[in-house]
Structures are given as C-alpha cells and as structure tokens.
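Translate structure to sequence.
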C-alpha cells in the first residue's frame, strides 16, 4: 500500500513571535497559506494539523475549523508523540512533516520529496537541512518519514529535545535510518533565501514581497523565488 499523510505542526505559544500562525500575510493567516498550499499536493492523501492541548491553541483550532482542515491535539513539548497520535487510525505508510511557519511551502516541492522518498527506498527524505547537499531556500522545507521509523523513534528512549524536534534523533545518529537528501532544480537552487517566519521582522519582509509581486495562495515556488531574487538584486 502507498498512502501518505501530511502533518502540519503548529502552536501559538512561540516565544519570539506569539500567535504568528494567525498573523496576517496578504489577507490570509500564515496557517491558511500553509494548509492551502499543502492540500494542493497531488501525492498527499490526507492533511492534519497537529497542535497542543493548551487553552491558547483553542484559537488555532478555531482557525482550522474555519479552513475545513482536520486538527488533532496532543503534547506541547513531545511533538514526536503528537505526530504519532495524529496518524492513529490511518493506514498511511509515509508521514510528511511540515512546519506551520513556512507560508510559502510549495506543493510541487512536497511532491518531489515524496517522490524521491519512494524512488530511493529511504526511510527518511528531506530537502531543507544544511547537509546532504540540500540547496533549497529555507521555507520550502518538507521531510518524509516512513511510518515504521516514526513509530520506532516514538518507542525509543529519546531525550526531551529529540522528542520536541521529531527527526533530530535521525539527524544526530541516535536512531539509525537510511536517508535521502533532495536537490533543488536550478530554478529553485537559491539556498541564500529565507521564507520562514521566525520573528515579526520576517513577516514584515514577506508581506512586502507578497504585496510588491502580487503573490497569492497559488503562487508557485518558482514565481516566489523569482520575486525574491529580483527584490534582493534591486
């Protein structure tokens, strides 16, 4: 069986930028950008937002309901456990990890990581870490983990930090797995660009990019990259 579920991790309790998932970007919440774009992936069978049980995240749940996307709630710090809970009852054999602070995450890029994950036979494929010759811009990131590996990690004796960062135990070698790094096509090979929202200044910069270049929820990664490259050159 080949079935893929995308899990978008999101919460409102960010220290540097509280409630950034609900912040406005071009007339839409940051979360709406992420959810809408991930759901346009042709290889993702189901999309779930995984958030926390904290009262603060009731607002995020309400936004998910407005968007018509499924939401599951779990631990605040054990994000790995939150992922495993989010896929319970689903027969998916592959899990895509998406961070909700990447409003420009691209369905085509997500599909490419899924495709290479399948073709390579790896247990973990990724396109955004600073090793393995990845050369995508920060903000187009996606990771694909086999369900078996995800559940193996969940059952392992991991540190709090490893459970919080989900795939860290693979990256640091604590959990052994076959991996595959995805290379960007030439039109997207601009690793110097950043499109993630970490602080208010990041949102302000992306808002200017959206307004100046008429970007919208359906804008392709190539269009976004061209706009960013043109802005940085001017």
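Result:
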């Amino acid at each position: 069986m080949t079935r893929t579920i995308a899990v978008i991790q999101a919460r409102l309790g960010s220290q540097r930028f509280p409630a950034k998932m609900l912040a406005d970007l071009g007339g839409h919440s940051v979360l709406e950008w992420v959810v809408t774009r991930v759901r346009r992936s042709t290889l993702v069978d189901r999309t779930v937002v995984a958030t926390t049980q904290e009262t603060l995240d009731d607002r995020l749940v309400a936004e998910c309901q407005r968007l018509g996307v499924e939401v599951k709630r779990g631990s605040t710090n054990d994000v790995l456990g939150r992922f495993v809970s989010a896929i319970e009852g689903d027969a998916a054999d592959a899990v895509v990890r998406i961070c909700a602070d990447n409003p420009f995450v691209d369905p085509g890029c997500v599909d490419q990581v899924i495709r290479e994950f399948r073709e390579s036979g790896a247990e973990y494929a990724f396109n955004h870490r600073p090793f393995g010759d990845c050369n995508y811009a920060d903000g187009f990131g996606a990771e694909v983990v086999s369900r078996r590996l995800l559940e193996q990690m969940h059952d392992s004796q991991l540190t709090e930090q490893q459970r919080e960062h989900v795939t860290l135990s693979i990256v640091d070698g604590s959990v052994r797995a076959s991996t595959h790094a995805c290379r960007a096509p030439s039109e997207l090979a601009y690793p110097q660009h950043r499109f993630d929202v970490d602080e208010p200044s990041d949102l302000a910069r992306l808002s200017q990019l959206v307004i100046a270049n008429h970007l919208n929820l359906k804008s392709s990664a190539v269009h976004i990259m061209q706009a960013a490259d043109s802005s940085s050159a001017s």
